[in-house]
Known about the structure:
By secondary structure, the protein is an alpha/beta fold. The protein contains eleven helices and 21 strands. The chain has helices at residues 23-30, 65-78, 94-97, 162-181, 226-237, 283-290, 313-332, 334-340, 344-355, 431-446, 450-453, and strands at 7-9, 33-38, 41-46, 49-51, 54-59, 87-91, 104-108, 117-119, 125-129, 153-159, 187-194, 208-210, 246-250, 254-256, 270-271, 309-312, 362-364, 368-369, 382-384, 389-391, 405-407. The strands form six sheets. Strands 1-17-15-16-13-10-11-12 form an eight-stranded mixed β-sheet, sandwiched between helices. A hairpin with a 2-residue loop joins strand 2 (33-38) and strand 3. The longest helix has 20 residues, at 162-181. It is globular, with a radius of gyration of 24 Å.
Amino acid sequence: MEKPDYLVDATSTIEPQRGPLSKESRELLEDNFFVFETALGWCNSYQRTKYGGTEINTMSDVKDVGKCCKACQESHLAADPPVSCNAWTWCGDQETCGSDYLRCILKHIQDSNKPAAASGSDIGWSSGLINHAKENSSKADTGKKSEDSGRKYHVLLTAAGFNQQWLARIAYYHYCKMKEEHPNSDMGGFTRLLHTGEPDIWMDVIPTFVALALPPGVDKGYIVLNRPYGILQWIEQEMHKIPEKYVLISEPDHLFVRPLPNFMVGNKPATYPFWYIQPYENRALIRKIVGPIPDEDFEHIHKIGSSPLILSKGDLAKIVPSWLNVSVVLKNNPESDQTFGWIQEMYAWSIASFLEGIHDYVLVKDMILHPPFDSKLGNSPIIHLTYGMTLAKNGKFVRNDKAPWIFNKRDYSSVPPPRNLTPPPNGTTNEVVIRVIKLINEATSNIPGWDEYAQNSVDRCCRFDESAQ
């Protein structure tokens, strides 16, 4: 059978490599925040930081952070909350710690989102949290254990911030509509992953898992860094509960217009190739991050990000810890932070996939649409609301932030859009822009209580101005 032309099969000719990061990158991690694995699960370690909290136990001559974290994990398993260990602190700097050198202190912190801590260059301690969800922090959709999930995937939508809150509600509306209209599609269960550490008003409406945010100061204002950290917690605590074999990583501004097929070929993950991710062109910088890589191997560091992406649960669990560590490196390396900017976690996913030996991806060119640059709906299942849409009075696309008709999700960062947004001007031929407003208006017209939720909101689409063309 001939493969459909919307599939571009990326094949690998090299053996999987679990190569280490470069010496400079390892030093960056060791001076900041990183995750590592023990026999009991994943640990995180925040350097030059000493957490407060109630002491449960103190041990001497503990050789490394791994042994200290594992001791906390063992204590947690052996005790009943609320007195179980959920944090640890260990001193590995003999000069600053003195008699506390190699001491491990197991602790319980009341609020894991806000661990009281001393930090700074003069602190010789390292600290970490044992990531366990708060009571009632998970209302995830775990499906039926007996269900034969076949090719179905579980939708994992990651979100943080108010503008993503209303977008997630609209995205969930259209997910439910697709599920109802196409019960035999590959779409399985749904979980919104809030990586803010706090529940919100949609907890009882959208199946949701609330992950702890990174410790204060780690993300350095780059909130997206919490995304891999949140997914790692979901993997540890929730993933084993879902019946689906596969996971779709999605975002609040991904709106379904038709069911998304499971585009995977065999076990190869399926995703969209982003034109602005350019590993080969940035190969000198990437080599500084991961060490020597031959030019020919860069074809296996793909032009992809972490969503929309469908992959097996096993590959997800394999990539995510490396994704988090590489993300921390890219943020703390001044050159990569400046070069990659807001999309650095996308580069981190591509690099982590390579490091973990996931070299084969199915790249689906028509997986998502980007209005206003895409104008025909075709058969694409997802519209991505990332760019502002600016139209002249005649309906033509113009690059003008004072255009008479504009839709930009960023205009609703503090208040959600009201019902019945003004449609694009007469004469508009861009099918995708027209559909976007219809999708939003349909959802807000059918979601109960939207008027109260969007109280004091203003329609910012219609800006007819005689000076605008």
